[in-house]
Amino acid sequence: MEQTPLISVIVPVYNVSAWLPRCVDSILAQTYKNLEILLVDDGSTDDSGRICEEYAKKDTRIRVLHKKNGGLSSARNAGLDVAAGQYIGFVDSDDWIEPEMYAVMLALMEQYDAQIVCAGRCDVDEATGDKTLGLCPEREEQTDGETLTGRIFLWDHCDSSACDKLYRRELFEGIRYPEGKTSEDIPVTYRLALKAQRAILCEKPFYNYFHRSGSISKGAGITEKTFHYSQHTAVILEDIRKNHPKIAPQAEFLRVHSLYHILLRLDHASSDIRRAYDGEYRFARRELARHWKFILTCPWLTRQQRVTDILLILNLYHLLRPVFHRA
Asked: What separation, in Å, do the N-terminal and C-terminal C-alpha atoms of the chain show?
């Protein structure tokens, strides 16, 4: 009897009892059945750990790991360290996936002998329940890892998200998520993509990304973690310029965007916040100024983004924002 490959699906779990059943049920409902489902309880203080154990009693494919709280990266790494599958997938515990996600992605992986498959996603708003098409490839397409990486840097119908992808296990050899950092996908996904000889883009929006007001990605407060994104892009740009100069412009675009992101966040913040992070603000302005020639000629920046970047460099954006940029 032909053996089907095992897919390890890693689900970091932390205080998500209200949404965890929907997530796990969507994985159990996959039409592809040979799954190892790793529920990594990252020190939850609600009923999440108990819910994980109840699911493990119902389905032998589920393994539960309980660990001290260490954050999303730590939970993913704990799952990676024990995963037995030939293929790796991730699902965040407040999100859910469509039934044919892994069947279709694995079929594409084997058809093209690829190392990574990138599908699309839908965005779901917690407050309204509205579901809209998010980043999604336009068509099924084969490419190489370097080209995919460039597209990831540009958000060209795909990005760094770990969860709308399927990976061959060997891509993670020597690679783990940075612990204690947010925006953890950004410094990892591009390295995985660069290791792939063949990558496949799948036009199906299989992943449902649940935007909740208290999540990491939507937290409104500015803290030291706000600057992790920019810190990642500085390292990425240096790496790409040295080792993959063909896609250096795309990496520079990512770097400029990260600085733009910080400066806009601080410009929109209260005066107390701006004073508290004045050093970071000045540093980001100096860093953005280093890219002024790129900003003037970059084909991926809109006119409004270009003008906004220049105003930020000149420290005039806050004064002229009503004219040049609608918040």
From this structure: 60
